[in-house]
Amino acid sequence: MHWTTIDYIGAVGGILTLFAFWRTNTGMWKVTSAWYELDNFIGSFSLVVYTWEKHAYVNIVINLIWGIVAFRGLSSFTERRLMRNANYKRGFQKGRKNMKHNRKR
């Protein structure tokens, strides 16, 4: 079998997704780890490209959903990091207080 570039992209995507799963199951990473979500996101994106080129359209839907979930995990990680920042947290709490004040009117 002669491997093309797209075959390598698919292999890397699958390996990244499996490694992310393996690392969380062995306790190396937490499910809330940005590395876990990044591996899943890049892996799913690579698999979408691979399955598109191979015309395996059913798998595209599965990998797109997996990528969306991973992207949401990355955004949650970013939100958690921002909430640890005192300046951001202070502004966030001030904004919540103003929202409550505006609702009472």
Could you walk me through the main structural features you see in this protein, from its secondary elements to its overall organization?
This protein is mainly alpha-helical. It has one domain (5-104). The chain has helices at residues 5-25, 34-53, 57-84, 86-104. The chain is elongated and about 55 Å long.
Shape: elongated
Question: In total, how many domains does the architecture comprise?
Answer: 1
Radius of gyration: 19 Å
The main sheet comes to: none
Given the helix and strand composition, which structural class is it? mainly alpha
What percent strand? under 5%
pLDDT averaged residue by residue:
82
Order of helices and strands: HHHH
**Low-pLDDT segments:** none
What's the helix count? Answer: 4
Counting DSSP E segments of at least 2 residues, the number of strands comes to 0
Instruction: Compute the separation of the termini in Å.
Output: 70 Å
Q: Report helical residue fraction.
A: over 70%
Properties at a glance:
mainly alpha
Question: Quick summary of this structure?
Answer:
The protein has 105 residues and is an all-alpha fold. The chain contains four helices and no strands.
